[in-house]
Amino acid sequence: KIIYVMQDTGVGGGPRLIFEHLNRLHEKGFEVQLYTLDNGPDWFDLKVPVKSFPDYEAMLNDLKQQDAIKVATWWQTAQVVWLSSVVRGVPVFYVQDVESSYYKDPIIQDTVLSFYRQEFDYLTISEYNKEHLRELGVEALNVRCGIDSRTYKRLPKVVRQPNTVIAAGRSNPLKNFAFTLKAWKRMKPQPKLVLFGIEPMLVKGLPNVEYHIKPTDAEINHLYNASEIFVQTSRHEGLCLPVLEAMAAGAAVVTTDSHGNRDFCFDKKNCLMVEQDDIEGLQSAIQRLLDDKKLRAKLTLAGRQTLKEYQWSKTMNMLYNHYNKLHSL
Q1: Helices in 64-147 by DSSP H: which ranges?
Q2: Does residue 328 have a pLDDT over 90?
Q3: Which helix (H) or strand (E) holds 302?
Q4: pTM of the predicted protein model
Q5: What pLDDT, in 10s, does the model give residues 296-311?
Q6: 34 DSSP β-pair partners
């Protein structure tokens, strides 16, 4: 029996990976359930039972009764998972990013890190995270994410629109979308900018910009397929799932070194990598790919080769074996 514990179930790459774990564990015959302070997701087809709680105290009281592998997925869920596993069950911490990076206040950062207890069994999704956790004195198993090849794939009937750039339009400071926007504004002539997300006000009134509000996965895949270049300029990521999705759809990638993407982003091999806040460098990289069809083809082909290491079958086999090992302890 495996219970994943989430604070909320909103749209995001992190929740998506958790839901993929749940669905695929369920398909394999594991007894799995989601505990949350939220409702079940309205944007993902989750096929496992969801139990909602009004607060962490109520959740803790229930978790204490469960003889299960209990998986924390965010630092604020770690306390209830740990406390509920002192007498019954096995505590696991699925760390998609060392979450102190989300806060500027050093007191809050220290508070976050205090929840990374030695007693947890740790899972993570990138070598960068694994090394960061090692610096904190804990060892983690890197269960790389997978890409849903049924959704994110090349669509042969979709024609790529020339001079078209796609990006995720988000205001989160770590995503540094402002960097992307500044470089795009300087380009002459400006390529068409296609964005997706839930914050259209970020580009309100700008010409030659198309913002898709809360598109479905299939719609995002179509947008990737219809664009020549995907741009992601994050300051920091635990992984950066959209880069892999764009590679699967055959879009050429321009990105920054955002730490978690070092496992699969290699400059001039399967992407072009630019320095943080180097506006001229980003502008130049985008223009270079728009102008150079052969380079785009080279990078996209290498991107598809990269994806062979990010198949759900590999990830889940590792996860099945690990959970079975924990169950037998």
Answers
A1: 75-84, 106-114, 127-135
A2: no
A3: helix 293-306
A4: 0.92
A5: 999 999 999 999 999 9
A6: 4, 50
Give the number of other CB atoms < 10 A from CB of residue 159. 9
Tell me the two tokens of residue 265: 């982003």
Q: How many CB atoms lie within 10 A of CB 308?
A: 8
Closest-CA residue to 251 (of 238, 260, 242): 242
The dihedral formed by the CA atoms of 42, 248, 307 and 71, expressed in degrees to the nearest 10: -10
The answer to whether residues 83 and 107 touch, using CB atoms and an 8 Å cutoff, is: no
Euclidean distance between CA atoms 151 and 139, whole angstroms: 33
What is residue 124's DSSP assignment? E
Return the closest-CA partner of residue 104 out of 204, 236, 200, 273. 236
* 256 SS3 class: strand
> What tens digit of pLDDT does each residue of 4-28 get?
999 999 988 899 999 999 999 999 9
Q: Which amino acid is at 22?
A: L
Positive or negative torsion for Cα 270, 276, 282, 285: negative
Query: Residue 151's closest CA among 255, 45, 73?
Result: 45
**Collapsed DSSP state (helix, strand, coil) of residue 195:** strand
